[in-house]
Design goal:
Strand order of the largest sheet: 3-2-1-4-5-6-7
Shape: globular
CATH superfamily: NAD(P)-binding Rossmann-like Domain
Distance between the termini: 47 Å
Radius of gyration: 17 Å
Structural class: alpha/beta
Length: 241
């Protein structure tokens, strides 16, 4: 049986991807800061779903991840869904630093840990939820868009490293558009809003097909294609709400 660990499985996309993998008979380790939010997933298949409390900003997170890998008896797929983000046009320091701590430091800690594990254990697959927000710097969400761009580049760099060193580690960079999750609570009138269930299905499909980069869905793929083409001198003058 294939084995996966999902970090950030307490809600939203991570929760739905975990549910889908469980339904497909994977052995699944699920982790989040709030372990009580994982119980409904555990109850689906108690004999092959394992839970752990892991906060990616904690220095002990790597140790906890290795313990979870031992619990499920190895690892084929690591899925990183832990992330935070807010609009912050006022540039409040606590919001910017908390976003950096989770999306940059925490992300690097966990991806680095699982890379080293796969490097020493025959390889595997690392899939991460980043965002289309990394396409260009967003004035209304500076830390969020910056950390998402960093994640895109970090995954690309590790993919090149894995290929050069023959580490047999595959990567899938998943970049969704707007998804109806707790991350967007309080935000209204969002265009092309997608359900977590639909996005989870597309993610598992992309992982199974070993996609390198997957923008979800096709409408957002078209939008980001043209978004990249906007000259910086125009982008600087655009007002985003």
């Amino acid at each position: 049986m294939k084995k996966a660990i999902i970090i950030g499985a307490s809600s939203g996309i991570g929760h739905e991807v975990a549910r889908l993998l469980i339904s497909q008979d994977w052995i699944v380790g699920i982790a989040a800061r709030r372990i009580n939010k994982l119980l409904d997933l555990k109850n689906i298949a108690p004999e092959r779903v394992y839970t752990a409390q892991i906060d990616v900003t904690n220095e002990e997170a790597e140790k906890s991840l290795m313990q979870l890998i031992d619990c499920i008896g190895g690892l084929d797929l690591y899925f990183h869904a832990a992330g935070i983000g807010w609009k912050n046009p006022e540039l409040k320091e606590d919001i910017e630093l908390k976003t950096m701590d989770t999306n940059a430091h925490g992300f690097t800690r966990m991806i680095g840990a699982v890379y080293r594990y796969f490097m020493n254990n025959g390889g595997g697959h690392i899939a991460c939820i980043t965002s289309i927000a990394g396409t260009k710097g967003l004035g209304v969400a500076p830390a969020y868009s910056a950390t998402k761009a960093m994640q895109n580049t970090y995954i690309q760099a590790l993919e090149q490293l894995s290929t050069a060193k023959h580490h047999n580690i595959r990567f899938t960079d998943i970049r969704p558009g707007f998804v109806d999750t707790p991350l967007l609570d309080g935000t209204t009138n969002l265009p092309m809003l997608m359900s977590p269930e639909k996005v989870a299905y597309s993610i598992v499909k992309a992982i199974n097909r070993h996609r390198h980069v997957c923008v979800i869905d096709h409408r957002w793929a078209i939008l980001t294609f043209f978004w990249k083409l906007i000259p910086n001198w125009i982008w600087r003058r655009m007002k985003l709400s």
